[in-house]
Amino acid sequence: MIITITNIKRVGSDELTSVTIENGVIKGWNLPEDGEVIDGHGGTVAPALIELHAHLREPGQTQKEDLASGLAAAAAGGYGTVVCMPNTSPVIDDPAIVRSLLEKAGTLGQARLKPAAALTRGQQGEALAELTYLKNAGAVMFTDDGRTNENARVLRLGLETAASLGMVVSVHAEDASLRADGVMNEGAVSEALGVPGNPAAAEAARVARDIEIVAGLAAQGRPVRLHVQHLSTARALDLVRDAKKRGLGVTCEVCPHHLTLTDEALRAFDAVYKVAPPLRTQADADHLLEGLRDGSVDCLATDHAPHTRAEKERDLLDAPSGIAYIELAFPLMYTRFGESLGLEKIVELLTAAPARVMGWPEPTLDTGAPADLVVFDLDTQREVKPTEFKSKAKFTPWAGETLKGWPVLTVVDGKVAYRRE
Ligand code: DOR
């Protein structure tokens, strides 16, 4: 199969060019038109985005999302690769589940699935899952995300076992006893609203503990790889920054919702803003943004976490946590931070940066590279209309906002996975 995409610009260039794709690889640039010709209308081409953190809800929670809707939503968001989280029903802790997800995703023609598997059986935190078999089945990461790893000894064993397999352990870093029943950031707003708060210290204390586990192993010549998911507080970021200075195998991701929203949003008493870890203060968001600039934040990830509308319409105390917006992540980042961070940096944080966290080859658009790419329309301002989402979660905090930087074409493995009508 041959496709030529014409009238596109490479990031950092104003020159119009074309790219030809043959049998899943980039055949070359500016070649004579060949095969199916797709007009890029002056859009900007980049490697397809890589998502390290999405909840696709299969198996067992397909009223919220499924592989077909979630991977279509990802492709519409410009993503070519998605790591799905294992906090499903049943939990993805069995090699047979990993295999069946991969088999199904392979038939969909959407973004490529890379499943994460549970670190512990049933994500119960007590006994390690069968990590070797899970890796052999195709799992790319181990995590109990959605739950916290309270048992430090089990986490340490998991880090070591994963490291022996060349794998990263990702952690949802919140101290459960400090978080207690907090449903939003603990601070002036939670006090004013009379809503139970979840203190920043719950995250920082857990990140500190986990870094010390990594440090203790490193000091004995036993290096491991810890990735802190959805890091939300200034203090936790300072701890990660310090761990990096110490040369430890610690990375972290930050989510666009923690950069663009704060706990002030909870004044609406709308559970669309309820997420774990919670929306923090503007000072935290500013600090995280600084971390993106100085490299202490490794990459961006969405933590796309769809729930049904009925669940999210419950009151703040009872509604589940999670914000679903994989279709908006790039336009949101580009609209809000395109000028301050720059297009190249935003693209890097969503492509090469997550690849580095995982130890994958950094994606490029060079001749001979795998044909995973996205074309963005950087100029047209469009309103966010959740009814048009491919995700089953047709609501979002940014509904009605005007954003630019929308993906118009996503190619995965040399095939069109998404094309804006
Ligand atoms: O807000 C969240 N929702 N945070 C998590 O860690 C889990 C996720 C979910 O599964 O809904």
Automatic annotation (TrEMBL):
Residues 45-214 form the Dihydroorotase catalytic domain. Substrate binds at residues 55-57, 87, 307. Zn(2+) 1 binds at residues 53, 55, 145, 303. GO terms for biological process: 'de novo' UMP biosynthetic process; purine nucleobase catabolic process. One of its GO terms (cellular component) is cytoplasm. Zn(2+) 2 binds at residues 145, 172, 230. This is Dihydroorotase. One of its GO terms (molecular function) is zinc ion binding. Its EC number is 3.5.2.3. Binds 2 Zn(2+) ions per subunit. The active site is at 303. Pathway: Pyrimidine metabolism; UMP biosynthesis via de novo pathway; (S)-dihydroorotate from bicarbonate: step 3/3. Its cofactor is Zn(2+). Belongs to the metallo-dependent hydrolases superfamily. DHOase family. Class I DHOase subfamily. Catalyzes the reversible cyclization of carbamoyl aspartate to dihydroorotate. Keywords: Hydrolase, Metal-binding, Pyrimidine biosynthesis, Zinc. It comes from Deinococcus metalli. InterPro entries: DHOase, DHOase/Allantoinase_Hydrolase, DHOase_cat, Dihydroorotase_CS, Metal-dep_hydrolase_composite, Metal_Hydrolase. Pfam families: DHOase. It catalyses: (S)-dihydroorotate + H2O = N-carbamoyl-L-aspartate + H(+). The keyword S-adenosyl-L-methionine does not apply.
